[in-house]
């Protein structure tokens, strides 16, 4: 039987590199792997459906799925996970010393519906009681004006969200004092050049994020893996084959982290960082599958619905390909 020809597009993570270089195969398939930045990957996948298998921003996927507007089905392979206390940047001259001080402020966001912003808003509301509608949101490109949402917004007409002025980037607006804060997965350039007026809401974000995990047991999910819907219908075995291959690649990446005789990365204290991470989160901290991530997934589903993104409260059964819900494949 001829092998299925697949194009796969993701960022060049350590946890996918064994698939890129051929150490791990996808059973029954011949793959063409296209590493690219996540912004390019999402743009080409969501707007043009170019790839058979693709990394997907999980918040936009939930939105599209809840509205029945997705060309892709989801596999519970979570390629990107990050705590997002580090993603909130502020003007230091606006009296913003704690999350509660964001009430009434003008806050920039590259895409209101992006996963990083969803998690940051949810954390701010659950832990500090600040609702999204207590801030005014300005949506636009972080460094290049004109960025837009993947799906039309579904917020109430009275919700305080507006577009950035034409020709203005969020970073420049923060630098010039037209914004009080930015929620962004990437650091704005005005922060990266060490402007004295720009800082983080949580300067010691690592401590804040570790405390969050100790209290909540949640490791936020940013991106999942999508498979073209027509291929699921044509090859019912394919979702599990992909799941197993991506899990095997992740396992190799984890083994590489533990190689201390000759470090494979340029971080001299990688071993110490790994030990600290495992002390807080346990040895198996980067899990795939539904059962091991049930608490994190349920919280993300709630945030999406509460924040006016998904049009209904989703469940794992609504979101993932049924064959990938089987606990026997999850490792």
TrEMBL record:
Name of this chain's protein? 4,5-dihydroxyphthalate decarboxylase
Task: Please report a single Pfam family linked to this protein.
Answer: NMT1
- Record the organism: Paenochrobactrum gallinarii
Q: List its EC numbers.
A: 4.1.1.55
Source organism superkingdom: Bacteria
Secretion signal: which residues? none
**Alphabetical list of InterPro entries matching this protein:** SsuA/THI5 (IPR015168)
Keywords, A to Z, come to: Lyase
In this chain the SsuA/THI5-like domain maps to: 86-140
């Amino acid at each position: 039987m001829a092998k299925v020809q697949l194009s796969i597009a993701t960022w060049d993570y350590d946890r996918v590199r064994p698939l890129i270089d051929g150490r791990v195969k996808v059973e029954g398939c011949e793959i063409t792997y296209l590493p690219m930045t996540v912004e390019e990957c999402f743009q080409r996948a969501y707007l043009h459906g170019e790839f058979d298998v693709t990394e997907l921003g999980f918040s936009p996927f939930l939105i599209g799925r809840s509205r029945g507007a997705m060309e892709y089905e989801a596999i519970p392979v979570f390629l990107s996970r990050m705590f997002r206390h580090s993603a909130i940047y502020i003007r230091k001259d606006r009296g913003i010393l704690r999350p509660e001080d964001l009430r009434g402020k003008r806050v920039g966001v590259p895409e209101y519906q992006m996963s990083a912003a969803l998690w940051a808003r949810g954390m701010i509301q659950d832990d500090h009681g600040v609702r999204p509608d207590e801030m005014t949101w300005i949506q636009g490109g972080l460094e290049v004006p004109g960025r837009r949402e993947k799906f039309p917004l579904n917020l109430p007409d009275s919700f305080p969200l507006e577009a950035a002025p034409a020709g203005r980037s969020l970073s420049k607006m923060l630098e010039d004092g037209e914004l009080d804060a930015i929620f962004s997965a990437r650091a704005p350039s005005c922060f990266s050049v060490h402007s004295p007026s720009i800082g983080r809401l949580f300067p010691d974000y690592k401590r804040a994020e570790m405390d969050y995990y100790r209290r909540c047991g949640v490791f936020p999910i940013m991106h999942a893996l999508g498979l073209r819907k027509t291929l699921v219908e044509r090859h019912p075995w394919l979702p599990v084959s992909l799941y197993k291959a991506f899990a095997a690649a992740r396992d190799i990446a984890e083994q590489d982290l533990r190689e201390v005789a000759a470090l494979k990365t340029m971080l001299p204290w990688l071993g110490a960082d790994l030990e600290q991470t495992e002390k807080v989160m346990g040895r198996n901290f980067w899990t795939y599958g539904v059962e091991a991530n049930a608490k994190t997934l349920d919280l993300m589903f709630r945030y999406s619905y509460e924040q006016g993104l998904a049009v209904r409260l989703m469940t794992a059964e609504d979101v993932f390909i049924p064959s990938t819900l089987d606990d026997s494949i999850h490792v």
